[in-house]
Amino acid sequence: MTFDLPFVWAGLIAFAVLAYVILDGFDLGIGILFPFAGDEEKRDLMMNAVAPVWDGNETWLIFGGGGLFAVFPLAYAIIMPALYAPLMAMLLGLVLRGVAFEFRWRTRRGKFIWDAAFFAGSLVAALAQGLALGALVQGIPVVGRAYAGGWWNWLTPFSLLTAVALTVGYVLLGSTWVNMKTTGALQLWARSVARVAGVAMLALIVIVSLWTPFLNGTYFHRWLSFPAILYAAPVPLLVAFAGYRLMYSLGEELDYQPFLAALALFVLTYIGLGISFYPYIVPQSVTIWQAAAPTSSLQFLLYGAVALVPVILAYTAFSYWIFRGKLDPAGGYH
Amino acid sequence: MMNHLDAALLARGQFAFTMAVHILFPAFSIGIASFLAVLEGLWLLRGDDAYKSAFDYWKKIFAVVFGMGVVSGLVMSYQFGTNWSVFSDKAGPVIGPLMGYEVMSAFFLEAGFLGVMLFGEQKVGRALHFFATVMVAAGTLFSAFWILAVNSWMQTPAGFGINAQGQYIPLDWMAVIFNPSFPYRLVHMVLAAYLTTAFAVGGVGAFHLLSDNTNRVARLMFSMALWMAAIVAPLQILAGDAHGINTLEHQPAKIAAMEGDFTTKPHTPLILFGIPDMKAQTTHDKIEIPYLGALILTHSLNGSITGLKHWPRNEQPDSTVVFFSFRLMVALGFAMAGFGLWGLYLRWRGRLYDNVALRWAALALAPAGFIAVLAGWITTEVGRQPYTIYGLLRTDQSISPIAAPAVAASLLMFVVIYFSVFGAGVFYLLRLMNRTPGSDETDFEDHGPSRAAGITPVAGLASSHRVAPFA
Predict the structure, then answer these.
(1) Which of B68, B76, B82, B172 to mutate to test the interface with A (most CBs of A within 10 A)?
(2) Is the alpha carbon torsion for A227, A228, A233, A234 positive or negative?
(3) In chain A, which residues have their Cβ closer than 8 Å to the Cβ of B119?
(4) B64 contacts chain A (CB < 8 A)
(5) Signed CA dihedral, A4, B176, B8, B19: sign only
(6) Closest Cα of chain A to B375: distance in Å?
(7) How far apart are CA B309 and CA B264, in angstroms?
(8) Inter-chain CB proximity A92 and B414 less than 8 Å
């Protein structure tokens, strides 16, 4: 039995990027909400809600980028220069917020600086990822084996919309995470933020979904022609259901359900993106098979992935399990 | 064309700058991670709380160093694509999977257990916590293994072919990973990381002993660091020698540039000092020792080293850089070894804690490892120019089709943000190192509320605990 290795790898990379988006999504969202939480005690608690896991969350971004480099080097070589400015902004944002996790405990006088860096870095990273997403969906022009567009192609009304949409989505993930991990006033506040973010995100999903098919013929065909619409239709229907569960569980003041419903929204819209992109890895220019590295590269890394990814998932789950449940406000920093 | 050259130069500057900052953190965290595992292991084994105090002390420092290493490393993993896309397209099939293994076997391992190590002490048992510490240490070493396999393959490529699209494709993975320079480079770098940490730990211990010579935890740090200096520094000289001979075999132009040898001479002398001049193709004002160059590099008096003039000018690495960076690294290496032997002698005479000069020397040498790592890295990377993949792909042909202003703007941002962020980080590290070991004094002006249930202060160190054998 032979596997279609490029297809398997596209699935694995897609999984890594999705894992990144939902995992770092909630901790970026917490960073964006951070200054609005009220007093310092609440900020400390929000920080502690992600401190033990953020590093692992961000590792999925390295896995996604590194994986692309290893198994789809051509796509990596085209997409990275095409998204130069948003990616640089994202990296610098992640530098600022990443060091803030440690630095803010190392100074009392300067703590506000690192609180500001945590917020600004998180916001810049979220917006930059949204811009990059919009630019990808719009398609990337390629000549030969290189990016052939301009340096500002990533900046369009559509990419600005996706930047806002993704940022709001992260805020939703972050607020539902805080709702799940905390009690009392902080939880009440997080829940009220989640209600607003939930409505806003659902509205933005609708706008982006209505806009996307009109970006080019392929998307239009895939989403709105018969019989393709029959395969695609379950996605928006499930989005509607997840949206309903989200708002309902927030109304019922449940702990876990709102976060899970927000996750479902992310997974579903991600699947929607997959339906739009397939079979391209550089949208509208290079397919999965054109970009794939030689079989020996795909095989060699797949052995490792098959053996190690389940182990990674196991100890990641273990780490989340250790830090499960509501945060103890007295439980301190190391 | 001019624009392309500018962009290439700026991209090189950006890579050199971000990499130079990055390399310092893993060089330190590889060493501290192993040190922490040893400390926690000895604490569990012997029950002496001095080990636990030292563990808690360096754990905080590790957390800051590791955080800076993660974020500066993240930048590196994307910079290949943003600035060096042609290189990425061509080399991705070979080095990409090695980096993929680094992520899967090292980064996730470190990240997964770091949270438990830093925050989980109250939540998991001692054995499990020790396991987490060991996993973090193992992760740092796995990471070194894979990334040095990548770097070594770029220096001494092996086990590959070239396909129709001009990509390098793997033919024999064992040959790719265990390429000719890999074992030497791996040993040299891991020893460098251990030495860097040993001298930082020794410097911190010495600093606190200078104000209180009876501090048991500071004595423990000082003593353990001096054992490392005495054992590892001489080993590093042997490893460096072997690495040099390996380089002579595979990258003779690099050796010629390091030695400042422009013309090929029999019984090549060793140029102790001089001023290389690439334009005139000679080294001015040389101070030479006859035969010694041949003796060191070929282990024979009759050997000879091919001079730089053997290669066309556009294939010569810049001797004016590597000649000096190499000498700086070697001088620091010998200073560290000499210090280690001095400490060993004083220990043998039973005067390890009585000699004030030794403490001052330890303090002066505290940054020696970092400087040596940077000097060595500059030597090996500038020395393999003008290639990214040695002998195959030139640096000026590896670059992304990017506009110079885009690179210039991002370079400027990197410089500004790195200096402020990592400058602050170094300041916080120094403040952490300023805490008196073994005391429960906090690391900043006053108590933070979050620390209430943080660490358990080490009680009664001066009381009747068993004396640690190293102290």
Answers:
(1) B82
(2) positive
(3) 51-52, 323, 333-334
(4) yes
(5) positive
(6) 25
(7) 8
(8) yes
Give the CATH number of domain A5-322. Answer: 1.20.1630
Say which of B109, B421, B452 has its CB closest to residue A332. Answer: B452
Distance from CA of B387 to the nearest CA of A (A): 19
Residue of A34, A299, A206 lying closest to B97 (CA atoms): A299
In Å, how far is A235's CA from the nearest CA of chain B? 32
Question: Which residue of chain A has the CA closest to B421?
Answer: A96
The secondary structure of B96-141 as a DSSP string is HHHHHHHIIIIIHHHHHHHHHHHH-TTTS-HHHHHHHHHHHHHHHH
Q: Specify whether the CB–CB gap between B417 and B75 falls below 8 A.
A: no
Count up the domains in chain B and report the number. 1
B75 min Cα distance to partner chain A (Å):
6
Residue A148: DSSP 8-state: -
Full pLDDT tens readout for chain B, 471 residues: 445 558 888 888 889 999 999 999 999 999 999 999 999 999 999 988 889 999 999 999 998 899 898 888 888 888 888 888 889 889 989 999 999 999 888 888 888 888 888 888 888 888 889 999 999 999 999 999 999 999 999 999 999 999 888 899 999 999 999 999 999 999 999 999 999 999 999 999 999 999 988 889 999 999 999 999 999 999 999 999 999 888 988 999 998 899 888 888 888 888 888 889 888 888 888 888 888 888 888 888 888 888 888 989 889 999 999 999 999 999 999 999 999 999 999 999 988 888 899 999 999 999 999 999 999 999 999 999 899 999 888 888 888 887 788 888 888 888 998 999 999 999 989 988 988 888 765 554 433 333 333 333 333 333 333 334 343
Give the separation between CA B353 and CA B363, rounded to whole angstroms.
14
Residue B202 maps to a domain? yes
Answer yes or no: is B205 within a domain. Answer: yes
**Gap between the Cα atoms of B158 and B172, Å rounded:** 8
- Cα separation, B281 vs B259, in Å, equals 13
- Residue B238's domain comprises 182-402
CB contact under 8 A, A70 and B71: no
Domain ranges of chain A: 5-322
Q: What is the ipTM of this complex?
A: 0.84
Backbone torsions φ then ψ of A159, nearest 5 degrees: -70, -30
Domain-embedded: residue B385: yes
| Closest to A209 measured CA to CA, from A233, A228, A230, A226 | A233
- DSSP for residue B81: H
In three-state secondary structure terms, B304 is strand
